[in-house]
Amino acid sequence: MQKYRCIPCGYVYDPTEGDPDGGVAPGTPFENIPEDWICPVCGVSKDMFEAE
Length: 52
Fold this sequence. Notes:
It contains no helices and 3 strands. It has strands at residues 4-6, 12-13, 49-51. It has a 3-stranded antiparallel beta sheet with strand order 2-1-3, with no helix packed on it. Strand 1 and strand 2 form a beta hairpin.
């Protein structure tokens, strides 16, 4: 599965890990994350991420 990087802060969303603290289960592809999800590090929206 594709990893995505937050452009402002560099946080990498890894689908194998998900974001359990943000309500995203491990194994969730980036495309399936809810649109209102935000970067757990800097708080920007999902549209500020790019594929690695």
